[in-house]
Amino acid sequence: MLITVPDRPRLGPRLAFRGWRARRPFWGGLLLALGGGEILLTEKASLKVVMHIGMQGLAGYLLPTLMVLLGLLILFNPSQRLFYSITGVLLSLGTWLTSNLGGFFLGLLLGATGSCLAFGWLPDQEPRTGRRKRRRQARAAARAPAPKGAQGAA
Fold it and tell me: Which residue ranges traverse the bilayer (predicted)?
């Protein structure tokens, strides 16, 4: 005996990802995680300007690791994005002292920008329409014929 499942429209993986991405501060979390990853990579740079502060440079590894973690938390738990983004920008600024000038400025800028994007993201808003689009819609509404019942009422 075969049990058949009724056909339902399947979204492609690209459309499913686009829907998932639209419901969260995707770019903010991604930039914060990438900034932390970049700072972690510059910790292992074989340059003479590498600084190690504290016990074997523990803070230099801890802060960017927390930045990566906060970036992922912003992606997968967007309801707490305000706390994560404020903590993320403070950690990004802290890497200035502990992690080679914030990963030679690049990681610091990525982390701070991502945190600001996540902080400013507002869920469930209608997309903004531009002035041109509103004008086109008004012209199209003016050109549209009036319903038949409305003509005889006047």
Answer: 24-41, 53-75, 82-98, 104-122
